Predict the 3D structure of the following.
Amino acid sequence: MTTAPERSPAQTDLVTLTIDGVEVSVPKGTLIIRAAEEIGIEIPRFCDHPGLDPVGACRQCLVEVWMPGPPGPDGTPGEARQMQGPPGRMKPQASCTMTVAPGMIVKTQLTSEAIDKAQQGVMEMLLVNHPLDCPVCDKGGECPLQNQAMSHGRATSRFEDVKRTYPKPINISSQVLLDRERCVLCARCTRFSEQVAGDPFIALVERGALQQVGIYEEKPFESYFSGNTVQICPVGALTGAAYRFRARPFDLVSTSSVCEHCASGCAQRTDHRRGQVMRRLAHYDPAVNEEWNCDKGRWAFTYPLVGDRLQFPMVRENGVLRVASWPEALAAAADGLAAATAAGIDDTGVGVLVGGRVSMEDAYAYSALSRALGGADIDFRARPHSAEEAAFLAHAVRGVTPETGGVTYADLESASSVLLVGLEPEDESPIVFLRLRKAFRKNKTGVYAVAPLPSRGLAKVGGTLLASAPGTEAQVLDGIARGSSRATESMTRAGEALREGGAVILVGERLASVPGALSAAVRLAEATGARLAWVPRRAGERGALEAGAIAGRSTAEMVRDAAVGRLGALVVGGVDPYDIVSAGAGHADGVTIDTEDVLEAMRRAFVVSLEVRESAVTELADVVLPVAPHAEKAGTFLDWEGRARPFEAALDSGAMSDYRVLDMLATELGTPIGTRTLSGTRDRLVAEPEPTRPTAPTVEAGEPAEPGAGHVLLATWHHLLDMGRMQDGEPFLAGTAPATVAKVSPGTAETFGLVDGDAVEVSTDSGSIVLPVVVTEGMVDHVVWMPTNSAGAPVRSALGVDSGAVVGLRKADLVATVLTTEDGVA
Amino acid sequence: MTTLTPILTKFWDHPQSWTLDTYEDNEGYQALDRALSLDPAELVQMAKDSGLRGRGGAGFPTGMKWGFLPPPDGGPRYLVVNADESEPGTCKDTPLMMAAPHILIEGIAITSYAIGCNHAFIYIRGEIVHVYRRLLRAVEEAYAAGHLGKDIHGSGFDLDVTVHAGAGAYICGEETALLDSLEGRRGQPRSKPPFPAVAGLYARPTVVNNVESIASIPPIVLHGDEWFADMGTESSKGFGIFSLSGHVEKPGQYEAPLGITMRELLEMAGGMRGGKRIKFWTPGGSSTPLFTDEHLDIPLDFDAVAKAGSMLGTRALQVFDETVCVVRAVDRWTDFYKHESCGKCTPCREGTWWLKQILGRLEHGQGDEEDLEKLLDICDNILGRSFCALGDGATSPITSSIQYFRDEYLRHLELGHCPFDPTDATLFASSNGSSSRTPAQEGASL
Ligand SMILES: Cc1cc2nc3c(=O)[nH]c(=O)nc-3n(C[C@H](O)[C@H](O)[C@H](O)COP(=O)(O)O)c2cc1C
Ligand code: SF4
Ligand code: SF4
Ligand code: FES
């Protein structure tokens, strides 16, 4: 080793080179183009993208390179020599594919005339076949081609011959359109799809100037991440159907925001014009979403505009809702709530159902109101939940953030292995999925999933399935921990992997419905040393937990009690009654409720509803108070990591966020809670005393349900794109939702006489759903899987049950949506 | 006076030259015996000492290429033989595989043994189905005779050979595009590094060599590296096949020591067809800058040709006499490059599209002198800026033709049409000895 003694180990990994006369030290392996950025030198580029593997295709980023000669006896690099080819002629190098070397000298367009000419030459050629339709192109005004043609191109083109033309756009999917004429063939879109998303449904086809982006004809571009291709396309070749021809970039006002759709916490930019959101883009946040987002985050923002927006407060009079003034409505609400609390006896009190969608500040206000009302029965879980889960959250999740050493995205990326339990990241937290895929591609992270079937998402992270029926998760986790004799080979391997150090266990919200599973997850983490994190689905749940919006009776208990008159009033914020069903099913101490219970509870109790749009709650509410949708309010989400994701209001509509409305309500009640302003609310939130950390739950694993003849266990989770109300009003997005199918194992298919494409009926006492079936290799037997809330299959409202329930299964008549062989497609 | 050295071409005139029997009658598979008795490292050294440089065009020293492979790590290593031969004018590998496929197969067995490869591939140009069939048959014969397969010649060395036909793309001759194509992807060149020696086929260490390079190995092993190095010139040892095509009396394959001159070769080929004057020629295929009658005495070796401003390439000597319009010839070559550009990089993809349009116009007398400057400048912006050498090659005929025949381009512009009659250059025109251009055609080309 010839390392100079005074160098620390960290510095030895740095390489020093000279770019345009400026010395710069960068980590070994850095690309020249990145090193130049470090010192503020921008080399023009098209195909280069920091999130993608380099290709060196466009040749726009050419630089002159002088390589140091062989080192002399004292170790100093020899005199640098210009890279040439053919001999005597400087050979430019692509700075996006070449890495730095010690003593290297780089000259960019700023200091090398030949490079300036080479770059202008490439630019001129890029424009040879590019249509000059900038005035009608969506990208005009924010186009890397336009911009760099101005900064690095010739003033005029010498091309006077015939351009290649194509018919105008073709649909790559229902939401992504391709104008082939504009494409500069940089392969960013195709590399993104293949590398980052793992959905290689587009590829470059043909050759020469006729090369073009093509689709895989047998499969649709069914990807949750396709919108990113529109964003990274350096020209206007890829456009989103919803935004195409709608606006010019220079007419838009941009607001930094955070996505409201899930707990991934994507930074985003909301672009709006004259009070209307025109589009949303992924914002760069290296710690969280890097530069990507999912299609739901990008395109699902039209839901407040579908015609059912609540504009004014309303009060119920003689059984009918009528518009009221704010003072009148607040007075009516306060009267009703006061009445419910007044007597202070058993059958009264106010329950607060927060929902999982509000900001942390809103959640705090709900919690403060609940305490002000003297009751403190509050829960944010409008979904299956359990007392075990509440104990788990208090023990293992609350107060854990990146600052206090919680698991982060970066930890996932560098994890030795990751175990997923009751969590399908691609559907439930897409950016977690993208990070896992990156970890798999770049760091060979081993992913294991305790799940009933091998999903495509699992395949894309190179994962191993630990196949298990819903309800058996606790036993499987204990098996992994102990390596018992009943453990399968892959369970044993997973157990070893988790003990390696740097391993992570991610549990999803679904585990709440499995008795003992969360207790077992804590035990497994302790036994193996792996770190544990909880990934909820909804954006507001983690913040609501921190804000204390879970205390006293659970959602299910409140519903049960209200339905029988043991709770006088309910304050309901953004809750869909159909989401709450069968809340505690399976738990020994659990409360099982169905849709009828929820409706009965709302009929019977005095209900104050805070809502953006009319819903099933509105119909039963006594007072309705309109609140602002995401784009019209400011606040903070906590993502699954516990990382604060503050966001600003993009639109200034005058609509009030929940905390403000609740402040007025509390004042009206004579018990002010001090949440009039955002900063005031945040101050109070910070001032809350640290909750004590209870011990971990130790719930016994329940006996897995044994489905009898004609019955199977139901496995279910939400597809990212489904019938969720917050995707309303965006048909192009809905067009790419995965087809709704039921899945069974080959064994189950045989038992029930099913083959691919058959229709199956899944039923309970409450109702039934008929879907085409896909026989799925590798799936556990005696289980049927369906998406929870996809078109034609509203599991919770139609069947009244959730994951783990015993359901009837039988072959049904062909459903209309199944294509018949007459169409040539079976 | 240089004389021919028929070594690879020695028995091509045998009525059944391609059979195993004929090959065995001509020392066939004796070199393999000798090779298997040596240490692989000795064979690599022998290739180095022979001075053999790659016959696929670039002239990279073959032994050195083998030496670049990392030490064995227990995983597979591959030999891939480049038999894509698609360069306009190049026509040596195809007749070699047609006439004497076993030389190649023996070369593959020796090279594989030398580099520690147990599975070799021949990537053959898709259009030459007859050669593909012949090669398949020869490989079958070799397996049956124990020259391929398990425990070859009782040495314990195993080798499988797969012959793979391409789908008809010039770019798939570029070694990394070839590897992608062989792996089942679209044939487009890969970024280097990593070089094939480190991460080639299926990301494993791989040697890619031309057919003729590999076929040259058995004679070297049999007769010694010194025997080989004694032939040729200082920079370019040994012999090579020179493929004469076009306006010569006896077109064909002339195997001779490197360093032979075009004047000597023309003489061997019976001179120019019909005694016409030579106008221009390619020393190594269409991607090498044109030569003219000024260059007839340049030794055809790597260095001398490079010094004179061109490249030895694949020794594809296309000869054009005075009846040929150089603009038309260049226009047609350019059409080829436009058609074959893989589309990956901007300069080649868009540049060839543009060049073709300008040349098409000029050939018909449309345009002005500025177009010549534009052509040169576009070429300047492609050469050395494109991703691979295909783009570079596209500029060679253009820049060299303007260098030597600028006046002829201008003549097109003055006349408003091509001054030549294409039929004058054809075989049937030269046999009846007169121009067949009719007045009607004269009018039509205006
Ligand atoms: C566009 C292009 C086409 C090529 N075609 C061939 C070919 O058909 N056969 C060949 O042997 N080499 C071809 N080459 C050269 C190969 O890339 C490579 O240099 C050669 O196969 C190495 O073999 P050698 O070292 O034995 O010459 C081509 C190169 C380029 C850039
Ligand atoms: S469509 Fe856009 S991103 Fe895709 S290759 Fe073309 S220019 Fe690049
Ligand atoms: S120069 Fe570029 S476009 Fe042309 S063949 Fe090579 S990589 Fe493809
Ligand atoms: S940016 Fe480097 S080649 Fe495209």
